[in-house]
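Summary for the lay section of the report: proteins are chains of building blocks that fold into shapes. Here we show the chain for Amino acid permease and then a coded description of the shape we predicted for it.
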Amino acid sequence: MSLTPAPASVDQRQKKPQADATLSHGLKQRHLSMIALGGVIGAGLFVGSGAGIAAAGPSIVIAYALSGLLVMLVMRMLGEMSAANPASGSFSVHAERAIGPWAGFTSGWAFWFLLCVAVGLEGIGAAKIMTAWLPGTPEWAWVALFMLVFCGTNLAAVKNFGEFEFWFAALKVGAITLFLGIGALAIVGVLPGTDAPGAANLSGTGGFLPNGSEGLIVGLLASIFAYGGLETVTIAAAESEHPVQGVAKAVRTAMWRIAVFYIGSMAVIVTLVPWNDPAIVEKGPYVAALDHLGIPAAGQIMNVVVLIALLSAMNANIYGASRMACSLVARGQGPQALGRVSGGVPRTAVLFSSVFGFGCVLLSYWRPDDVFRWLLNMIGAVILVVWIFIAVSQLVLRRRVEREAPEKLVVKMWAYPYVTVLALIGMAVVFVLMAREADTRTQLLGTGGLTLALAIAGYVWQKARESRQPERETAAVGTQTD
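The coded shape description reads as follows.
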């Protein structure tokens, strides 16, 4: 039995979520541009990339290039749909219009769950940095402080979120640009006190593929999940002054941002530092590279940058979770209380998302080995599930828009439908690779269970709503007759 309902009418398909009509449009173009620029630079790049380098060696550059190509394609698809139909629910709205309400329900609530758990993880990471600077202070208190700050920021007005992200992104972009500049000077041998390394670190110590294809696969899987968070810009675009232009610009610049910040960084690090240097994992690859060059206070400088990246991600994820929840409720797919908008801000959704995130933090202290690990496994592959919904939605909606409103195709996916199908095949390959590795297999099973539960709940909700529809129509006719 198909889970896809009969096609909706054109009016229903083009209808904007009610939430978007009540949310404010306080984000300026400079906010959106910097969110797009800085959103690609997360804590996963600064910290998580170390494990990937340790597994793949210099071939981590290939791993990031392959995963970056997949992300570029996903962003192009999402950009095409979001420019044609800007909505705070982003891909969840597109999935509902293309596949059916159950798909919007599944992808939206899975993403909300991912963001809320991620808020807790980022809070824990930021608190660990603070307790290292101020020994004896409790981690949970720092997490609570960060939660209060960013919850308050998101409760006040969307422009506050935009301002925080603008300056956070500016600092991250400045830091990584400086790193790339210093690294390039060191590679060509013009940085004072350093000699050009040549290709010694790329070809020595086991060669370019020191751990063979298995190491490359581990590095590839690690790199894919470092790209999470790029979707926030399409959610934020719905509250900007010029949603269509903002999305179009963000998507068109995604390619060079990924190439420079991710692939460029990995190339600099593995050229300067031997891939098997323990400092890459212990201190983080960026700190290891700067220490290798003898840059004073490199560790503390990068800890500040990582702290900024973590706080930026917390802020953005609280924002994204609240908007996704608000959009879902506006489409009748969640508790009505979460959809209340006051002063252009979904304050109840902000509070609920923040409290849920802090609850995950408490579970990391109370039940670290069972409940919290179970939560981590459930979010392990959610981003891949979301990407699949995006690709399938784009396959369906592109034909529909070309037929009904071709002028809305401000951004177009390359070589449609062939490249979209190629991207879907790439996602399927990643799932197969995850199933082969013991650690990622557990995550795959956890995410599969979460997705299946949400899909069943969404399908039951959809059928219940369809069964009530004739009753509402009959009641409406009766009221008109009276």
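Put simply, here is one thing we learned. Residues 20-461 form a domain with the Amino acid/polyamine transporter I fold (CATH 1.20.1740.10).
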